Amino acid sequence: MAALGERVIQAGDGISEFEWQASPQLAALPQASWQDWAAPEGRVFVVAPHPDDEVLAAGGLMAQLAAAGHDVQVVAVTDGGASHPGSRLWPQARLLEQRPRESGAALRCLGVRSACLRLHLPDGAIAVHRATLVRRLCQLFAPGDRVVTTWRWDGHPDHEETAQAVAEAAARRHVRLFEAPVWAWHWCLPSDERWPWSRARRLPLDLATRERKQRAVQAHASQLHPDPSTGRGPVLRPSIVARAARPFEVFFAHDG
């Protein structure tokens, strides 16, 4: 699915939020609460392929867990140095400094107290380093922990490789796994049979949580503005920012 999704990701604003809000699949999802993710005997990990994925996938959940006093640990697989290819405004060296700073500011907006753990794998090449990623995650996870990451069919190669590595590490360490779509909202129709709706749960976000999440999204300034040096629009287009303002988040639960 990655190759198809990656092509569609590059084009336009994707599936409209109106179509998503009108979809019976989304309307029928059972509701959950942040307590379903709390780990009484461990930590909650959020594993992000790139800085900002943790906010887009689970910013509301992290804010709710943090407000309730639970330990949330974000793991950044890459530092996001490939987000602006060929850019004179955002060369890779600048991105590798800027994007971790933005991620730190975003986590403070959410109330997450633990510093982000950075694995420094190369952006765009997670597949090459998948064994390393699995090994590092196995060193972090312990039985009783819970982990959230991107969906294994999200349409972006790094998202899918990260999800597969997290799933392998979670199985080895007996950690319960949740996956969240990020780019799939953009390109995969609600009626697509690949959506695992039977495992999906809808987490409601109250107004205060939504405001925290929106401030966290805005902290990723390098991704929110056009790049005049290449003529490209923002990486996080208005349609993506609008989806991040939903009064809910969606997760796919895996038994564990």
Automatic annotation (TrEMBL):
Gene Ontology terms, MF aspect: hydrolase activity
Protein's organism: Variovorax dokdonensis
Family annotation (SUPFAM superfamilies): LmbE-like
EC number: 3.5.1.-
Residue span of region Disordered: 216-235
One Pfam family hit: PIG-L
Key words of the record: Hydrolase
Protein name, per record: PIG-L family deacetylase
